[in-house]
Amino acid sequence: MTSEQASVAELILQVQELERELATLRHGLDTRTLIGQATGLLAGSLHLSTGRAWQVLRLTSSYSNVKMRDVARVLVHAHDGVAEPDDEALAVLVVPALERASQLAEGVSGR
């Protein structure tokens, strides 16, 4: 292998690594956006501050043992009237946990 071929091979590896990093960053940004939307929905529907709504989202995730991004996705999809194949199965876990977390938030906020 010539030095030019080695340089090209190294550049290809660098591009592949950057593509993986970009995909990871895009996924993280999408997740943050979805969680932000779900937080806003909870704040509006439960009349909570966004900080308290985020706590409700976090507790719902914890109580249901479902990742926060999946809880957020189920909530946003339910609001938008769209669904992915596993949303219904997750909703069975998320809804009771959301009710529990909401009751806790209501007790703390004095409503």
Structural overview:
With 111 residues, the protein is an all-alpha fold. It has one domain. The chain is 86% helix and 0% strand. It has four helices and no strands. The chain has helices spanning 3-46, 50-64, 68-80, 87-109. The longest helix is centred in the N-terminal third of the chain and has 44 residues, at 3-46. The protein is elongated. The protein starts with a helix and ends with a helix.
The helix content is over 70%
- Helical run tally: 4
Residue runs with pLDDT of under 50 for 5 or more positions = none
Count of individual domains: 1
What's the alpha carbon Rg, rounded to whole Å?
Answer: 20 Å
CA distance, first residue to last residue? 73 Å
Main beta-sheet strand count, sense and barrel state: none
From N to C, what is the helix and strand string?
HHHH
Give the oligomeric state: single chain
User: Any idea what the shape is?
Assistant: elongated
Structural class: mainly alpha
Which helices and strands, and how do they pair?
Blueprint: H1 3-46, H2 50-64, H3 68-80, H4 87-109
Helix pairs in contact: 1-2, 1-3, 2-3, 2-4, 3-4
Index terms:
mainly alpha, 86% helix, CheY-like_superfamily
